[in-house]
């Protein structure tokens, strides 16, 4: 039996969508018209200021562009953080000022419903797609990345193996290649119920306990490119830094934030810097507009980052 203060009925009546956005630091660009707030969509991360509409009295949201979806505050939290229902309830309870809830959120590191896939798949590390990104087949092999042509979850994708924080394999992420698929579903295909907010891609290879500084990027390709230059990096697999992820970094003296050079990446940079400071010294690197770290040359990458490790 769930205590009443953790039921969605109770929480939906007490936690506004605006409170969730404020908690995540994504309320800055919203404008109010009558009973509605308008702003860029925090779910898909676009920059259209009218894409995302919140109805304040009904406490519901809708994205009229890429997501073309909406719902209540529960659905928003699940979309933003890919949390389980249990984690969502705990998170909303923490915003409703229900005592003890926030510490419980931190304890919930692994999703109960997530089933790790530990089988090893054969991927083609010598695929031209990775070579074009500047990732050698040696690096791709080391990171267990490559093209997958057999039927299954990764079919038609470039696969990358995922690990938990201790380095146990938990499955694969797939980078969709077909433009139509990318447009419909986004670039990345992640395992169902993956506890993204409790993971940091590559964390087990570059533990902050052995490095004074780490580069934080959005995706695995940038991690691999930096690894080729002996620069330790972890990826968020997106643009959100969860409290769990934040708690993994306090032993670091320095963090170098190098997110994608698009509007979503820029906004996330500010948000994440605010979340990490003042406990951690944060250097931010703003890439040229529409450039991702893996679009840069090796020389550009090392000139941006190497002086930060002196
Ligand atoms: Zn959207």
Structure description:
35% of the residues are buried. This protein has 310 residues and is α+β, with helices and mostly antiparallel strands. It folds into 3 domains: 4-107, Zinc finger, CHC2-typedomain (DNA Primase, Chain A), CATH 3.90.580.10; 128-194, no CATH class; 213-309, Dna Topoisomerase Vi A Subunit, Chain: A, domain 2 (3-Layer(aba) Sandwich). The strands form 3 sheets. A 5-stranded antiparallel sheet has the order 1-2-3-4-5. A 4-stranded antiparallel sheet has the order 6-7-8-9. Strands 11-10-12-13 form a 4-stranded parallel sheet, with helices on both faces. It contains 12 helices and 13 strands. Helices cover 30% and strands 18% of the residues. The model is unreliable at 99-111 (pLDDT under 50). The structure holds zinc ion. Zinc ion binds next to loops.
